[in-house]
Amino acid sequence: MKLARVIIALFMGLCLVLALGQPALAGLRVVGAKIEAEVSPGSSNAYEMNVGNTSDAPMDIVVEVRGYATSATNSFIALEPEKDTSQYSARKFLTASPSSFHLEPGESQDIVVTAKIPADVGDGGRYAIVFIHTMPSGTGTATITAIAARVLLTIKGSNLIHDSEVTPVSLGDIIPGEPLQRLVTITNNGNHHYKPYIQGTLRKGDKILATASIKDDWPIIPGYSRQFQLNFVGEASIPAGEYKVNIEVKDESGNLVTEGTFPVEFTEKQEVLPPEKAPLPPEPSTAAPLITALLPPSTAINWPVIVGAIAAVVIVGLLIVIFLLLRRKRAH
Amino acid sequence: MYEWRRELTKFARLIAIGVVVTVLCVGAVSRVTASPAIDISVSAAKAITLTPGIISTAVDTITVTCDTTTWKVTAADADATTSGKMTAYATGAAAYDPTPAKLASAMSVKATTATGAIGAEVTLPAGGDILTGSAVVDAQAYTLTFSQPVSYLDVTLTGDGETNEAPNTYRIVVTFTGSSP
Q1: ipTM score of the complex?
Q2: Which of A66, A249, B59, B178 has the most CB atoms around its CB within 10 Å?
Q3: Cα separations in angstroms, A142 against A135, A257, B48, B110, B170
């Protein structure tokens, strides 16, 4: 019996540590700073975020729904409404409430983002950014602190198209003494976002002389392009001559989205990165990890909940075992 | 038989307490860590002393906390009035000069750790990624450096700042945006 009490006391202590052991924060905090969900045409959906002031000064917060764009070098841009002309914009479907509020140090506020999806919304994905920001502070160089909570909505039951175009930017450029590091632009011509996995191979005939690959966690959204640098890795430098570069773009499921082959000519010897200095990232897995597979596609893995649930099961099991042991002892 | 039942009741009570405490704690923990959770702060902006003929700099600190391994912080100037260049501003009137005098060069921003540069130096207004994270961070501080080239041709402001026609300082608002994929 004493042992059981000790275990419960330890467990409660563990809970206290977990509750108090949250990261130290000191600014604008947003919890649940992404909405990624499947939505049905004609449906109304509500999502909650929590905005906190973790600084030691009061804050005035503004919540705006903006367009979601990318550029060659920016993986997200919160577009002002007048600049948001994408046919895949979700901005007009979304409202955030409250849209402005004041937070004293340590206070937090729930905001509800409501997505009302038109019945005739069409196919593919719809995108926006919930832009949560402070007001400017300071003179001279004033600053605004902001969190861009990206909204990626997939229209349920619609025809999702992953299609892209790959364009070489500087495949043939020669930089004497520099390893072969080249830029390509990937344009999403489909109607749905994907996280790109890009593989490049430098070939002479059928022989592969160097390879490059990039796996990016930031999706390319339809109608926009992003630029990626391919760092070619090979066993030896490439002599001057004519070659071909093949580029394959796959989505996060490993499905081929697009590919292209481009002739390049090196007028002098071209260095490549040695293999040990540029480890290749792993291929994206076509099989979903076990825990992810058990969850709906739009659900992020919440490790504290999973660990807490496992701990609860273990502790209940321990208590039952202790009870049975004590009972047997008394029976003897 | 009676004692056995009493023991069972006590243990059932303990188990119930354990389950309730677990649920409450898991609820509390999940409440504050619903992923992704991101927190950024920029220390109170310091005034930048503009000296003609050199690149004037000001240093601040940006602190990032994020519970996902991938995250970014961008810097940009979203104000069309300034477009990346410090612009004449009247502090008393809290307004930019209606026919704004701007510094000739755009401001640039970069973030570094104690061990050296980890992010690109970006030029406003478009800016870009100044920090790209590949690990969970907990109140990780980075040094922010604002760099502003100043020319002898840039206008020296002589107003008192009481009206926006009499600007007394140059100003720009830099937006630091954090996000997680």
Answers
A1: 0.79
A2: B178
A3: 10, 43, 10, 15, 11
Does the beta-carbon distance from A143 to B107 stay under 8 Å? Answer: no
**CB-CB under 8 Å, B177 with A15:** no
Give the residue from chain A lying closest to B133, CA to CA.
A217
In the numeric block, which tokens belong to residue B108?
């640039």
What pTM did the predictor assign?
0.77
CATH architecture of the region A24-158: Sandwich (2.60)
Query: Within 13 Å, how many C-alpha atoms sit on residue B16's CB side?
Result: 6
Rounded CA separation A129/A120 (Å): 22
- Phi/psi for A60 (5° steps) reads -105, 125
Q: What is the pLDDT of residues A25-49, one digit of tens each?
A: 348 999 999 999 999 999 999 999 9
Would you list the DSSP string of A157-207? TS-----EEEEESSTT---TTSB-EEEEEEEE-SSS-B--EEEEEEEETTE
A24-158 and A164-277: same fold? yes
From chain B, pick out residues whose CB is under 8 angstroms from the CB of A302.
Answer: 30, 33-35
Contact between residue A189 and residue A163 where contact means Cβ atoms under 8 Å apart: yes
Instruction: Take residue A51 and report the two structure tokens written for it.
Output: 């905005």
Q: Which residue has the higher pLDDT, B54 or A278?
A: B54
Per residue in A135-171, pLDDT tens? 987 777 888 999 999 999 999 999 999 999 999 887 6
Domain residue extents for chain B: 1-34, 38-179
d(CA A109, CA B62): 23
Q: Does 2.60.40.2550 match the CATH number of domain A164-277?
A: yes
Q: Which CATH architecture has domain B38-179?
A: Sandwich (2.60)
Token representation of residue B42: 């920029």
Spans of all domains in chain A? 24-158, 164-277, 302-332
